[in-house]
Amino acid sequence: MNVFRLAGDISHLLAIIILLLKIWTSRSCAGISGKSQVMFAITYTARYLDLFTNFISLYNSTMKIIFLGAAYATLYLIYVRFKATYDHNHDTFRVEFLLIPTVILSVLINHDFSPLEILWTFSIYLESVAILPQLFMVSKTGEAESITSHYLFALGSYRALYIINWVYRYYAEGFYDLIAIVAGVVQTVLYCDFFYLYITKGSRANATEMSIEA
Amino acid sequence: SIQDTTHDEL
């Protein structure tokens, strides 16, 4: 554990809490892509099955349980509790375009051809593109509420901080995991356009909404 | 490189 990794995890946790609080306090999931959230729930489920096979640390297990719980709580809020506010007319990204290639890729390119390892690999590939329905939705409606923007910024920062952690680990420990690194770079690059807008437009004092051009 | 299949990151 190094400071970059910890900062990445905190940023990830912050993103999830921001989203849950936003939906809960506004009693609405307007502007939130349920499809992205379904894919994040699939991601954590596939990746954290090792909760039952591997104990790494109390920190590790606790965070996994929090991420899993929060992912399903978010789905509950979107698809059950505040279903009436779900903006499905704008959440039209075709998820099969993400699911099918990531399943195929995880079977073809993995560290070990075993069920748990393939599921881990699938989760890494799927996570890297899971935000696309959300970004697509924001570009389609042309705006994101500022709180949604904060969520996206925290979520994007998480993998960017992980990249710095991987650079650090390469030099400090000689450790690297090419699958995680390549997917993590792809994931971070997808946020670049958003980061640019967040920093340039989001910093205006009275900005409550930001526009994102497709 | 260390390519064991224990993943210690989240």
Question: In terms of topology, how is this protein built?
Answer:
The complex is a heterodimer of chains A (214) and B (10).
Chain A: H1 3-26, H2 34-47, H3 58-81, H4 96-108, H5 115-129, H6 132-141, E1 144-145, H7 146-173, H8 178-201, E2 209-210
Antiparallel strand pairs in A: 1-2
Helix pairs in contact in A: 1-3, 1-7, 2-3, 2-5, 4-5, 5-8, 7-8
Chain B: no helix or strand
Structural write-up:
- The complex is a heterodimer of chains A (214) and B (10).
- Chain A is mainly α.
- Chain A has helices at 3-26, 34-47, 58-81, 96-108, 115-129, 132-141, 146-173, 178-201; strands spanning 144-145, 209-210.
- Chain A is built from eight helices and two strands.
- With 10 residues, chain B is low in regular secondary structure.
- Chain B is 0% helix and 0% strand.
- Chain B has no helices and no strands.
- The termini of chain B are far apart.
Give me some keywords for this one.
heterodimer; A: 214 residues; mainly alpha; two-stranded antiparallel sheet; 71% helix; B: 10 residues; little secondary structure; 0% strand
Poorly predicted segments of chain B: none
Mean pLDDT of chain B: 70
3D shape of chain B:
elongated
Determine the structural class of chain A based on helices, strands and strand pairing.
mainly alpha
The assigned structural class of chain B equals little secondary structure
Question: Could you tell me the strand content of chain A as a percent range?
Answer: under 5%
Q: Can you write the helix and strand succession of chain A as a string?
A: HHHHHHEHHE
Q: Helix segment count of chain B? A: 0
- Estimated helix fraction of chain A: over 70%
| Rg calculated over all Cα atoms of chain B | 7 Å
User: What is the subunit organization of this protein?
Assistant: heterodimer
Rg from Cα of chain A: 17 Å
Give the N-to-C terminal Cα separation of chain A. Answer: 38 Å
| N- to C-terminal distance of chain B | 20 Å
How many helices of chain A does DSSP assign?
8
Report the principal-axis shape of chain A.
globular
